[in-house]
Amino acid sequence: MRNKILGLAIGEKSLFVAEVQGGDRPAVRAVAELQYPAGVSFAEARPESAHAAELGKALAKLLKEKGIAARNAVIGLPARWLLVKPKEVPAADDATVAGMLRLEAESEFSSELKDLVFDFARQSQGASGNTVLLVATQRRYLDALAAMCDAARLDPIAVTSSAIALARATAQGQLNGSKAGGERNLLVLTLGATASELTAQHGALPDAVRHLRPSNPQPPFVNELRRAVSMLGGGSSDRQLILWGDAELDARALGDQLGFPVQIGQLKSLGVDPSTACSNGDSCRYAPAVALAMTALGDMPAAVDFLHSRLAPPQPRRIPRWAYAVGGAVLLMLLGWAGEMVDTSSLSSRLQALQNRQMSDDQVAKASAFVNEVTTAQDWYMNEARYEACMRDLLLAVPNDGQTYATSLDLREPSRAIGSGDAKLTGAAAHELSGTLTGRTLDKAHVIQLLQDIEAMPQFTNLNDGPIDANYRGGDVSFSIAFDYLLPERLNKK
To answer: For residue 483, what are the domain limits?
Structure first.
């Protein structure tokens, strides 16, 4: 578990830093604000430009001056950089919901899809379905943040929304402090010098995220806030607003204008023990950065994480670890045979000559055994990598679903006629290899699917599935599949 986490709340002209140390009651060890150098901003901070690197160097200097040693960082994006849409989905697991939202994103943002990164936050689940919050940001912001962290020698462990992180922490604090307060229709307002952010939610996750103008001048800001609140729906009788940021607005007066209670947020309500560095009057300015760091110290991950998006395209199938082990063993066998490879045709002629000279039965048996061994070795080096081809085709057939895995693989040579050299294989079948794949998977349906996938490949013949044993304590089943294997080249000649 990480002991110290940095929260970085990105803004248009500055970013806020908070170092939080974990424990029974997390403590805020240090806070700081980085004003961007003149002429440098995230609006131009593309990874190929010098802006991102310059911001990273300035951040590294600030951290050194403040004595901040933490290197793992949770980064929060401003609401202005986000595209947020609520989506109604049927009741289903996260994987199914992710597939549906991926298709919706492709249909709605097909032209911009390559430039956007998506994720979603799941909200309260109902009987017939639930609502999720589809959130997107431009990929260039993530690339610029990665370049900045690289220059500052930081390790970004999550990139999320500052507003969502703070609203989630505020709601949890309300639930812990007062049950009645936690059940209210909660609004969270964060004030900043260049922008303000409003979130509305029921329970643990927000229903909406809004970007608003800065709080000064106050009259147009209050008018915009009232319009934003009215568009969220619901009545004012059960609403409550928590105010974070510069203490420029009078909470009571703002509550009178809005028609529901307004309270000033306190860092201690987030579940942290503020240190001396946060005990001054403007400590609430750093609340978003503190909430971001808290997401890496709690039991629940960030509601939205663009670094580990659940809507990212599926990764290509990778070779499982057991295949590397089998491949390494085969490679060692190949290297061992390479030092002993000889001309099998010459050895066959020599054996025939010895037999014509009426050798003893013992001499003939030894010579025949030697020729058979060399004949077997020939198959490894005559442009017929049968074992490698067989294992490659098995890898393509076995799903990389994290639930199906092999416990053993037995590959055997078919019988050959004694002293036949490069003769045809004996027996009714003209196969090149015989094998048995043993493993475990989730249930019998997965075994049947695996058998069908292998059977669909023409180079595998004579498939025979063994008994399927259920392991009720482990929740999975074992399987055994026997097969014959033909090289694709031999298969095409049949």
So the answer is: 321-493
pLDDT (0 to 100) of residue 175: 65
Q: Which of the 8 DSSP states describes residue 302?
A: P
Residue 61 is predicted with a pLDDT of 94
Looking at residue 301, the DSSP 8-state letter turns out to be P
Sign of the dihedral through C-alpha 86, 88, 93, 96: negative
Question: Strand pairing partners for 73?
Answer: 6, 156
Q: Are residues 484 and 347 in the same domain?
A: yes
For the chain, the helix, strand and coil percentages under 3-state DSSP, each to the nearest 5 = 40, 25, 35
Residues of the chain above pLDDT 90, percent? 21
Q: Are 420 and 375 in contact (CB under 8 A)?
A: yes
pLDDT score at 63 = 95
Burial of 169 (0-12, 13-18, 19+ CB in 10 A): buried
Q: What is the domain count for the chain?
A: 2
Q: What is the DSSP string of 414-473?
A: PP--TT-SSPPPPSS---SEEEEEEEEESSHHHHHHHHHHHHTSTTEEEEEE---EEETT
pLDDT confidence of residue 493? 61
